[in-house]
Amino acid sequence: MPMSVDVLGLWNFGDPELSERRFRAALEGAEGDDRLVLLTQIARSYGLRRDFEGARAVLSEVEAELSSSGPEPKARYWLELGRTYCSAAHTPETQTSDAIELARGAYTRAFEIAQAARLDYLSIDALHMMTMVDTGAESQIEWNRRALSYMERSDQAEAKKWEGSLRNNLGYALHLAGRYDEALVEFEKALALRISSGNVGGTRVGKWMIAWTLRAMGRYQEALEMQLALDEEYEEAGESDPYVRAELEHLYRALGDEERAESYASKA
């Protein structure tokens, strides 16, 4: 049965606490699978704040009712359980072999359940989380390509929403592997998608990734122009970005302008 609650619409990934309040408000009157799915998202909000024990406590409530639930709560339960062991929110010292294998098993279960139920958005989510488990650049490239291929085969609108993030992630993995020409292609595709969707934050990140890769390719002047434009854009919005300014420091050093490099080093 389709969810009656728009889960993605309730999320603000930049503000997990606000998201939790939204999910708890939606819990009022929610029943069955809807209630269980909302609980998994509350658990995720805890995980984003690195309260992994709190997340598992909420998930234990979900686990107690999974036997009578549909596939979506099951897939989301395993996804969120995996994220409590291995995700971008974890610090390196927590990523023990035991934690990684627990996450691998959970993500695999999530994928199998979602795939069987044609929950393509969740299938792709599980595939993309495997890059947290297998962190080598070539492994990340392989998992991202699998997720992209799955997205391209899907006829579901929700699944198509993954393309910008997946191309950005693939570009990042290619960059780490030193395959800069290929990385640039993926970053440019990701940027076009972010621009067309009106995603301002994603557009800024996309421009930064392209300029970062141009610097790695030795195309310093092009990279410099992009990062300066980004820095100006942030300033006009009353903001600043330390990553942009760190790149400007690196670029001015590469161009032999130590004075400007030091200026951006102090700003960063």
Short characterization:
The protein has about 270 residues and is mostly helical. It has helices at about 5-10, 15-25, 30-50, 50-65, 70-85, 95-115, 120-135, 135-155, 155-160, 165-175, 180-195, 200-215, 220-235, 240-255, 260-265.
Description:
With 268 residues, the chain is mainly α. Helix content is 76%, strand content 0%. It is built from 15 helices and no strands. Helix 3 (32-48) runs parallel beside helix 5 and helix 8 packs antiparallel against helix 10. The protein is elongated and about 65 Å long.
Task: Summarize the SSE layout with pairings.
Elements: H1 7-10, H2 16-27, H3 32-48, H4 52-63, H5 71-85, H6 97-116, H7 120-133, H8 137-153, H9 157-160, H10 163-176, H11 180-197, H12 200-216, H13 220-236, H14 242-254, H15 258-267
Helix pairs in contact: 2-3, 3-4, 3-5, 4-5, 5-6, 5-7, 6-7, 7-8, 8-10, 10-11, 11-12, 12-13, 13-14, 14-15
Please tally the β strands and state the result.
Answer: 0
- Average per-residue pLDDT, rounded, comes to 96
Task: Provide the low-confidence segments as ranges.
Answer: none
The gross shape turns out to be: elongated
* Helical proportion, percent range: over 70%
| Biggest sheet layout | none
Distance between the termini: 50 Å
Radius of gyration equals: 20 Å
Q: Order of SSEs, N→C?
A: HHHHHHHHHHHHHHH
Residues in β-strands, percent: under 5%
By DSSP (H or I, 4+ residues per run), the number of helices equals 15
- Helix-and-strand structural type: mainly alpha
